[in-house]
Amino acid sequence: MRLAATPTDAAWGSRLAPLDCWTRPEVSPGTKYRLLALLPVRDRQALLPACLDSLRGAVDGVVALDDGSEDHTPRILREDPLVVRILHRQRRDLAEWDDAANRYLLHQAVSHFCPEWTLVIDSDEELEGSFRDHRETLLGAPASVRAYAFPLVSTDGERISAPIHLPRMYRYVGDAPFAQRRLHGLPIPLSVLEQETRLLSIRFFHHSGTDRQRRERFEKYRVADPHREFQDSYDNLLRPKTVHPLLPPEPELRMDDYWIENAHRPRFFTGDEDGPTRNDRSRHGDRFREAVALLGEVMIERVVLKERIERRRYRVVHVDVPSLSWEVEPELAWLVEHFRIVRRPDELAAAFTRTWRSAVAEAGETLLLFLHEGLERGLFAHGVRRLFRDDACRGTK
Question: Where does this protein have coiled-coil stretches (predicted)?
């Protein structure tokens, strides 16, 4: 069968080629699952069985996308009863590998099963067994928790690397916006905010630690990203990283706040005194409202300040969709930069209050309209809401 298109698909254009879809015959129509795993795979017959075994008892089913495998991967998927649906894409050159489109297609394909949660895993990874012990706790989290991040460690089978923290599990919502960056994009919907994500102590093990595996990954990305469009260099993949002992899982589940670690970015406002001038605050008007309308479709946490175009104009870009960029006034540029640097909601609110309390009083209704519209659209997701409980700000309404 072929999957039907959805309205959201139009944004991806030709990147969503028609797919053949196989659903396990024993799966009854309308069957619902609490937790489904999303698994993109290509030519992984050696590692795929271990990946699937790690999911047994942890998830209720697996929806896989076979990206044109030429080995026994399709047979392994069909023979495993945990796999409830398989999408098949025609094989393409590795230089055409579109990881973002594959993950979006998987997200759309599970809508048939109405899952509560989805977990993203790659075919050369294994989920730590302790997940099974804490599954019900994670699935029963309050509505304010919309995603989980996990420590991912590289392993050679005996030792592991230091962890990197990646969001891999999220509450399922159909037609959610996804990063369109072809490689190295965020694997969960862009609509999930950092403060709605919890960092767990449960690990993902990535089989990328042996000499052979490091060389294979390097060659894979050398072909997939020949012009280094998505990463400046892949030399880091060749360096041995598995220097830590492989310890048993932690007996108790830990949940911590999660904040995306961002690469260093140039600063344009080095201090409060470098922020927008009084003249800027008095003349923003229509341009501010236009900027909010443009940025309202993306959360401020996924936007970064890239360059100063001229003395009082700046360019911001979306970190997952680099083709999306906007020219903005200094006030909005200041907010974007301070979000990336200050990061914590309470600190951001304090910095905003310190610099902008007088601006609110001077600019009056126009600036308040800008702020309220940003709040309603989810632009100022972190910390700014608390400002409107402040008497000094309320007094200018």
Answer: none
Residue 307: φ, ψ to 5°: -160, 160
8 Å CB contact between 316 and 379: no
Q: Is residue 96 part of a domain?
A: yes
Torsion of CA 94, 98, 20, 105, to 10 degrees: 160
Domain for residue 199, yes or no?
yes
Residue whose tokens read 């940025």: 295
Nearest CA-CA partner of 171 in 153, 185, 189: 189
Q: What is the pLDDT of residues 22-61, one digit of tens each?
A: 999 998 877 889 999 999 999 999 999 999 999 999 999 9
CA distance 229 to 213: 23
- Rounded CA-CA distance 245/266 in Å is 37
* Domain range for 312: 272-394
Q: What is the pTM of this model?
A: 0.70
Residues composing the chain: 397
CATH of residue 181's domain is 3.90.550
